[in-house]
User: Fold these one by one.
Assistant:
Number 1:
Amino acid sequence: MGSGVMTYHPLAETYDTGEAYFTSLGLLGGSTGMVPVFTNNTTFASTPDAYGDNLTFAITDSVLKVTRADTDWTNYTWNLGATYDKVLGVAYFHGGNASPRGMRMGFDQNTYSGSQVTEAYTTDSYAFGCYNYGGNEYYMGTRYSTASGYLLLGTDTSIYNAMEETDFVFGMATYLEDNVQKGFLKFGSTSQWFQVLSTADGDLTAGWQSFKLSGGFQSASVFRQITPFYVWGAV
Amino acid sequence: METGTFQKKGAGTQQDPIQPDFESAPGGPLGYTPVMWESVGGETATTMTVRYQTQ
């Protein structure tokens, strides 16, 4: 595995959705009411429903290649097809070929279609991810509020991955319900999922309708999302 | 881990997000930025209550 390009193949074959782990936490199964919404296991079913400007996508089996022709955040979404009061998403990323600003995932309370060029599309989400703005490197939970702007709900500066093309594939997961957001990571095909942040905030209001993924780079970039890509939800 | 209420700071942009100002604790500045912190609710227009890792 001397090449970063090669590292995503084994993960794509493990089908590691984390379902057993999240069930053990009580987030799936039992009386949660959570049912599969997206089950992209060995292949991606479709390209995103909506996307920021200057983006192109290419699916090759387990890999969604995302290319952005200019600088800044690469955002794309799949609509969930319903409004959910609880959601859990699991996705794997392979870093980009330009200096990264961050990679994150989350849920929006809107649906989107086609090209989206508004600032709100970039920021209007309940996100969990990795950032390195201002030289700081941390994971965090965030959300956007029209009234207050971009708000951090938590950070952890003790954990970070560089998100470069030569770095490993890593898994991220985020769970949302009313007043609760949790963020999880998985580094490498044999590691376990682990919780990074768990926030309780009165401004986290249920009603999620789309799943958003984002990569931010300081110049034109290519990065990849790798299966499995799963979303569960409860209405 | 301890829990405290802090004033908010930040412009609300991605580069300068709103977050707790750990120099504004009621008992005086913490004197450090916690390695890890997370919101525990009770947010107001001007303050956030967070659980944070002590130094």
Note: Residues 8-234 of chain A form a domain with the Jelly Rolls fold (CATH 2.60.120.560).
Number 2:
Amino acid sequence: MTTILANLMIVAILLASLVILGTRWLRVYIHAYAFQSLMLSLMTGLLAVETGHRALYVVAILTYVVRGLIVPLILLRITKGPVVDQEMNLIIKVPTSLLIGVLLSVFAYGVTLPLLHGQHPPMVVGAVAVGLAILFIGFFVLSSRFQAVTHILGLLMIENGIFLASVVLAPGMPLIVELVVLFDILVTVIAMIIVVQVMAARLGTTSAAKLRRLTG
Amino acid sequence: MRLPDVVLQVLQVVTVLAFSPLITGLLKRIEEIVESKRGPSVLQPYYDLRKLFQKEWLIPRAASPIFLLAPFVVFTAMIAITLLIPVLTDFPLPLGFMGDMLGGAFLFTLASFMVTLAGMDTGSPHGGLGASRSTFVAILAEPTLILVLIGVALIAQSTLPYVVIKTLVAGPAAYFNPAHLLIVTAFFLLFLADTDRLPLHSDTHVEISMIEEARILEYSGWGLALLKWASHMKQFLLLVVFCNVLLFPWGLSHSGTIPSVVWAVLTLLLKMTVIVVLVVIVQTSISRLRFFRYQEYLGASFILALLAIIAHQLTGS
């Protein structure tokens, strides 16, 4: 039963990151990210039930509140403004980026399997592979899409991937580490929001593709 | 009393022939009700077929034998597919071993190919347009179909639909396998594309936007009736594969007795109604995609099918 649920969640997490690759609407990005975070927190809760670590319950709840609620709500708010383009012009088009996303997932699996094979149950190997895949996909989003908001989301996806891999591999991680990471996320998001506001005020756009010069 | 296999096999074909227009009618009716109109009777496709069968088949002067042959090939292909898939029983019938799911897919493609040829045959511009468009969609949909079949084969270790049913019914681990759920989703997207529905094609009857229909504009009378009936059957057969094999592999007749067969027919219609409601929700809530964005839609279904295979590897089952 646990394995079935865990497998479903792992694949849902991977699916959410492919949804992010497969759309050109900012709103869908943010919802997919929120869904991914929800699945991540459920996965943590499942691990808490399975391993009996009390701290993991707190981590699951905090993960949901910060990654699943606060961050998406803040992002939805700043994308409401008139300066932010709701639909993006993609440099790499949707089908190509989806294919690249799938290739990255396969690559992540190929990297993980020789590392962990035999020492952990297949569910753990799968989860770590998905974590790594999300990390790669996050990098890809960061480097191929030029909206300030997608940059934040790419960063957050990388963070989600690392979190998934770490929570599965080392469920007994101290609570303080997780608290620090969550605080980091909040600070990052707020810093990026300030960047977005400054860009919007100075340039009238939030697209990083328009930035041509480095000035002090 | 257990019915002989031959009778069951015949009943299977009769079920598909008899109920396929009903599902089309049901879909139209529910859709009109959702759009707060009254809509035609559920039996309207039957009336249409009866009317067309009484009329003369006018053959254009430019038509070649292909044009005359196409309705028969298409209709026969659909009946042949009926013999391959589990419509009523969950145990294999004698002719069920003629071909696996890949064989069924070939027959669907053969039928579509014949209609395409017939559409181009008379040289009418609409036929050529429809042929070109439907080939474009078919080219994009084909990889997904192959991957779906590969995914099913990975889960069940077989491409025979009866084996797939056995595997899925065996326990929750097989049914709630992420690979299976992704395949179901990919197949549903494929179903919408293959039966000429939104987001690829809208119901407005304008020649300029037609895809599949444009190919058969030159047909009339009972030739058209055969083609229409075949297209009802195509939708019904895809639904049978979707419901009986992939989504709800329960309720099929296990013993082959008369009550269990009747029950199988009733549950089949019930399952289809569920899917029809789902299709209506899709049809009424989204708009049509631009022609050059079809690849995004079909690309998404391709990725889902590909992901199913990856998920199968990831979860290590």
Note: Chain A touches chain B through 27 residues (CB under 8 Å).
